[in-house]
Design brief:
By secondary structure, the protein is α/β, with parallel strands linked by helices. The protein has one domain: Neutral Protease, domain 2 (Orthogonal Bundle), CATH 1.10.390. It is built from 11 helices and 5 strands, in the order H-E-E-H-E-H-E-E-H-H-H-H-H-H-H-H. Helix 5 packs across helix 8 and helix 9 runs antiparallel to helix 10. The radius of gyration is 20 Å and the shape is globular. Bound molecules: zinc ion. The site of zinc ion has 6 residues, from helix 4 and helix 5.
Length: 284
Amino acid sequence: MNKKLAPFLILLLPFLGFEPLNEPPQWHEDLTFHYKILHQDTWLPMGFTLKLENIHSRMRMDLAWCWPPVSSGTRIPLYLYRNQILYTHGRFHPPAWSVGLAIPEVRSILTFSQKPMANLYQIIAHETTHVIFVSYWLRKNQNYPPYWLNEGLAMVEQTSQEHSKDCYWYQQISYLAGQNLFPLKTLMRLEPMKMSNVQSIQLWYMESYSLIYFLLRKHSNFYFKTFVSYLRDGRSFKTALWAGYRYTPQQLERAWFRFLNVQSRQKTFGPISKVGFFHDLGPS
Ligand SMILES: [Zn+2]
């Protein structure tokens, strides 16, 4: 490198998106159409970039209404650490128990190499949903989207509709019926990072997943889009729900609980999955 240029380049690098990381080992970069992959292992797993683009196009079909026209030209930085220790001690400081993190402010996601690959792909889909959905929401609203909606949607988008049964959360909701559930009103008010009881947190996540699964997968996508866009515009939950689904909150709660009862009688799973996510949204 030309030595006279070096100091200038160091100043410029953060603006170009190549901020020095000050952490071992060295980062390698690969580009796909929609992701800038920064990885610590020399080589990416076989088929990784193709799979990432498959996930992205599947999500784009599912949530087309979330995509701004310009996003197709902006790659999402994906930091793929070599292992969980390097991930935890990296510059983003994710919680030690987390397996992935989204930082919507810089449209970035991070996780670490892990097996089986199916889990890793679910994590990437989950974190990508946060980045896309939060950016959709903030285009019209100054506040973050409600937790139950943001988390529930990211959990549902971990897999395609036809592979829902491979998802840990889908398998878990078969056991929700008959439990002491949070009523709808409570579920929407709670914030997982302010809860301390692990069982309650797990229940909150499962219920949020099951509610969004019911709203998105058991109804027309158009209903969901209408409902969410009303909420984003600052309309009340009651108004948004009626506009999208012609449900009152009471009717929704009854229909949702009926759905959980049906699920409890249909325990037809794929392989049991163990991927879980807790508090994976980065600092705001
Ligand atoms: Zn999440």
